[in-house]
Design goal:
Strand order of the largest sheet: 4-3-6-1-2-5
CATH architecture of the largest domain: 3-Layer(aba) Sandwich
Largest sheet: 6 strands, antiparallel
Number of helices: 7
CATH topology of the largest domain: Rossmann fold
Bound molecules: flavin-adenine dinucleotide, FE2/S2 (inorganic) cluster
Number of domains: 3
Shape: globular
Helix content: 10-25%
CATH superfamily of the largest domain: Nucleotide-binding domain of ferredoxin-NADP reductase (FNR) module
Strand content: 25-35%
CATH class of the largest domain: Alpha Beta
Distance between the termini: 12 Å
Order of helices and strands: EEEEEHEEHEHEEHEHEEEHEEHEEE
Radius of gyration: 21 Å
Number of strands: 19
């Protein structure tokens, strides 16, 4: 029913005790096109049926031969544990393709300073962006501020050292360790005060402009945002990717207009196949579709990963305010099924 592509595992590379990079062979006829910073939506057996999980791509388009994701095990996690511990060369993974708007597009003639913040597995999309900038934007400089517990938990430690040796004039890596077991640039957590301190100490490279990319756990992202704001960095220069929702999502009752009194009949074009389901009052579109036995793509269920994006062809949807779509996407009729409530009796939707 879903338009997924099966990818063969070429090899599994251990990065740390609890993280691996999974290198995937690209199929000849259905290559996965992606940009640096995007994630791969995997179709997995989880949540009592078929589910999806997003994993950022650590390889760099145009540079690396394999399409690679880097996964860190989460205690009790259904999928991350299987990927980190139970996968080997020759196994298969199903993917719905590359998605996401946390994207870096290198321009050969650009001269900019990229300041990258990462913590833990948040390094994954940042690593792809970093390599892309170093290899494909020769006039640009990169500073990476990378937070971890200790040296053993630093994903890509050796690879970053090799890149520093290869690009000594263009790459600066600052390690921030919360429980240092060896000398590091900064000890402690990546707080807003530390962000201000680090920014003040970064090399004053003669770059045309400075852009900021950040990826890590919710708390770290809030600190980075606050630190950058304290330094007067405009929001337009900051790009953020979160692996988990920033704050608990609003309860359905708190969404004005979401409580339709009657059920809605939804006609959905799911990857070219027409299907129908009914949404009861108070249910999200995703909840109702899954309850009907359908398998639309989804991952975070919280409105920020955009894996469940659909296009509204007719009828009305009310979404929670905090969502990962831009004003232009909403205007084009896009909506997120996981935080979307129908407010008309009939709805026509399409999932590409
Ligand atoms: C856009 C995006 C990109 C991502 N990229 C990566 C990546 O490059 N590498 C990577 O390892 N993971 C990444 N993730 C997280 C990944 O999609 C899964 O959420 C994670 O692997 C947990 O899945 P699970 O099935 O193991 O855990 P589940 O069985 O779904 O959850 C088990 C427990 O862990 C908690 N939990 C779930 N997700 C997280 C999380 N992200 N952080 C902390 N606690 C969590 C749950 O609340 C639950 O208590 C990304 C997520 C998104 C949305
Ligand atoms: S599942 Fe992530 S936005 Fe809906």
């Amino acid at each position: 029913m879903s338009k997924s592509t099966t990818l063969k595992v070429a090899s599994v590379e251990r990065e740390t005790d609890d993280a691996v990079t999974i290198h995937l062979k690209q199929p000849l006829l259905r290559r996965i096109q992606y940009a640096a910073g995007q994630y791969l939506t995997l179709e997995v057996d989880a949540d009592g049926g078929k589910g999806c999980r997003a994993y950022s791509i650590s390889s760099t388009p145009g540079l690396d031969k394999t399409l690679s994701i880097t996964v860190k095990r989460i205690a009790g996690g259904q999928v991350s544990n299987r990927l980190v511990q139970g996968l080997s060369a020759g196994d298969s993974l199903r993917t719905l393709g590359a998605h996401g708007r946390f994207v870096f597009s290198p321009q050969a003639g650009e001269r900019r300073h990229l300041v990258l913040f990462a913590a833990g597995s948040g390094i994954t999309p940042i690593f792809s962006i970093l390599k892309s900038a170093l290899h494909f934007e020769p006039g640009s400089r990169v500073s990476l501020v990378y937070g971890n517990r200790n040296t053993d938990s630093v994903i890509f430690r050796d690879k970053l050292e090799r890149l520093q040796a290869m690009f000594p004039e263009r790459l600066r890596v600052l390690h921030v360790l919360s429980r240092p077991d060896a000398p590091c640039d900064h000890s402690g957590r990546l707080t807003r005060e530390r962000v201000v301190e680090v920014l003040a100490a970064l090399p004053t490279w003669d770059a045309g402009r400075t852009e900021f990319y950040a990826c890590g756990p919710g708390g770290m992202m809030e600190e980075v945002t606050a630190g950058l704001a304290a330094c007067g960095v405009p929001a337009s220069a900051i790009h953020m990717e979160s692996f988990s929702p920033p704050k608990p999502a609003a309860a359905p009752a708190a969404i004005p207009g979401a409580q339709s009194a009657t059920s809605t009949r939804v006609h959905l074009d799911l990857h070219g196949e027409p299907v129908e389901f009914t949404v009861a009052p108070g249910q999200t579109l995703l909840e109702a579709a899954l309850a009907s036995g359908l398998q639309p793509p989804f991952s975070c269920r919280s409105g920020f990963c955009t894996a469940c994006m659909c296009t509204r062809l007719s009828g009305e949807i009310r979404m929670r305010e905090e969502h990962g779509l831009s004003a232009a996407e909403v205007k084009q009729g896009h909506a997120l099924m996981c935080i979307g409530y129908p407010i008309s009796e009939e709805l026509r939707l399409r999932i590409e």
